Amino acid sequence: xxxxxxxxxxxxxxxxxxxxxxxxxxxxxxxxxxxxxxxxxxxxxxxxxxxxxxxxxxxxxxxxxxxxxxxxxxxxxxxxxxxxxxxxxxxxxxxxxxxxxxxxxxxxxxxxxxxxxxxxxxxxxxxxxxxxxxxxxxxxxxxxxxxxxxxxxxxxxxxxxxxxxxxxxxxxxxxxxxxxxxxxxxxxxxxxxxxxxxxxxxxxxxxxxxxxxxxxxxxxxxxxxxxxxxxxxxxxxxxxxxxxxxx
Length: 247
Description:
By secondary structure, the chain is of the alpha+beta class. It folds into two domains: 3-148, Trna Endonuclease, Chain: A, domain 1 (3-Layer(aba) Sandwich); 160-246, no CATH class. The chain contains six helices and 13 strands. The longest helix is centred in the middle third of the chain and has 17 residues, at 127-143.
């Protein structure tokens, strides 16, 4: 059991506060600022980067590429309505020394649950990680959080999700393409409605008010279709529409 388990976080005014873990119940850490950032040094192997989250339209910090993939997975999950990184730090005493731990992500779900994500090292969980995980479980019990461990999909599924995520920004949205995709595919052939070459494609979605089509068949990959970015954006948004009712 960790002694003097406390949580460092920012309050609603951006002032850093340290409170006992049991006093953190109900605090929306997903809406608070960062209390820690990874330090850079020449020999580090991880790549610190930022994920632009379509969920909250904010940058979320990731201390490694594995965390970046986890952030993408959280951003795509329809039950996640908000998440942030490095918004709290656990502080406790162990064997006469002060220890610290910064979970990777704090998540809020559509049902109002508060989740905490701690990703294992790329080399696999070791003794140090297991000790940190035990302290985090204790903090979750006291604060009313739930410990979450998202598992990354296989290489092919992860590559497909990464491909779709490149078009997650709202600037790729198009009402006409969205309406055409909602109506479903149309048998037969037609000219790609946003292409300039007039190349025919199979398995088309008819466009509103015209005899042309939005090509999403195999031949659309030849480059004749100019609306693929909007189609990918629609795929991303269609899975995440349940967030609107949760906010």
